[in-house]
Known about the structure:
mainly alpha, 5 strands, disordered N terminus, disordered C terminus, nucleobase transmembrane transporter activity, transmembrane helix
Amino acid sequence: MAKRALPNPAPPPPPPSRRSPFVSASTRTTRTTSMGLFNRRTNQGDEGEARQPFSWKLPRQASSLAPEDVYTNADLDPTTDPAQRTWGYGTWFSFWVAASLDPAFWQTGASLIPLGLSVGNAIGIVVLGNCVIAVPIVLNGMIGAKLRIPFPVAARASMGYYLSYFAVVSRAFLSLIWFGVETYNGGLAMTQFLRAIWPSYSTIPNSLPESAGISTRDMTSYFLFWLVQLPFFFLNPNQLRWAFLLKTVVVPVTMLATMGALVHSAGGGGPLFDQPNSVTGKGFSQAWLIGFAALQGNWATLSVNSSDFTRYSKTSRAQWSQALAIPLSALFVTICGILAASASIPVYGLAIEDAMWSPFDIMDRWNSRAATAFAALAWMLAGVAANITANSISSANDLVSMCPRYINLTRGQIITAVLGGWAVAPWKILASSGTFLTFVSGYAIFLGPFAGLLTSDYFLVKRTAYHVPELYDPRGIYRYSAGVNWRAAATLVLTITPNLPGLINAINPDVYIGNIAWWYAPGFITGYLPAILVYWGLNVAFPHHATLLAEAVSAEDVDLSVPPTFDDYGTKSSGEHNKDVYEMGSVSVHA
Length: 591
């Protein structure tokens, strides 16, 4: 479809209007940033800097793309400033090393081999599962890398301005849970560190009741590790690349040293490598699917909100290095964990079923206090980096989108630390029967469709043509019907419902659901792929013309000082000062 010529009269003066009278991004000279908890610094061009006193209510940002009556802040805005886009190929590789090299991934073999799988099959599942989950992570990451917007904003394009909050709240809920669990693991490393310095720390008497679910020593370690994380929450995400790079060096060395020392003492890889599959037929298939689902579930959340990080990429191509970094880093740590556990059997005279899968159990056997202290420091660094990458920043972005008047990125991370660290009480969760963790892991049946909606909408329906300023307007083209895109809502119902019986059975095995359990077993993938197809099909049959642009419009393309006009499709146009192709047309513009 040919592009229509836009009228060329002199632009009318800005109205007293719905949009703030700011010039386009390329000519802005002022910017207010909302980073910081107690103070806010305002850049005032050549006039220097002024520091404002603390206020619970954040200042309305001059860089905002939202209408004047819609509150937002700079942490939710596109990262248009090149100084914020510092993540290159090396940063992305170290990001995934930082995310993968933690105690949870070290123990991956403990969740696969006891299912009856051989070491070879366990490693195969690790490789395949991480290669599969890398696909939606990279594809959805393109939204942030190209348009520089975070996940809560990107979700509005497919789900509608208000329905997107369902995905945002779901993501925030999971972040709080896993933040607490990851902090608990960090507390175990803190225990080893303090034990190495003061051996009497191991024998601190317990003064907490049994109902607390945690001892005095472990609560002390948990609290101290929780405190250690706090300074990192005051850093802008683009500054965290140095922490990722440090972890990329320190933690792999610690893992190799731990594994190498055990393998050397055992004189080989240990008995687990000679152990064949103990399940066959249907049991083997079920074990494989459960393991496959577990590996995808590890990164299901990041497949949804990868744009929270990719918006800091130097180029849109840099984030593609994730496709290699994800499976390689996961494979490395899993092999180290399996080798160490297998070698621990002959070294410590254990039965096969008592193999030491936790690095902290291994460290507890060490006599060298120096080795224990340095290894514990490395594992604490691993825990901090993993918690920031997978949980705190993601949750903070979600909280900012829900309450931008009072929450910025720093405050959002502090809230995550308080709620996830204490309200969740992870020691209670981990000490329970595991039913709640089963539910949280099974939440991938929601995350798969969320990720599928993002992929399908950006690549198949909108053909990468988003209008970024409109994503910040609750009355804009992405409002759909009352803020809800019924196509997305229908997709969620049609793709989540078939997985619900499987989730119920996983929580309560006494509930018989028949063969439909096989649909639930692969987890994330049976939500992601169907959602892509269902959503695309609904949009082909019932297109929403107003959101189908001829070309993407970024935050840098639009002069917000020009009042909008509308065409027959409800399309906005702001005259000659805007990008000359940002009009919407019919479906044929994608032909």
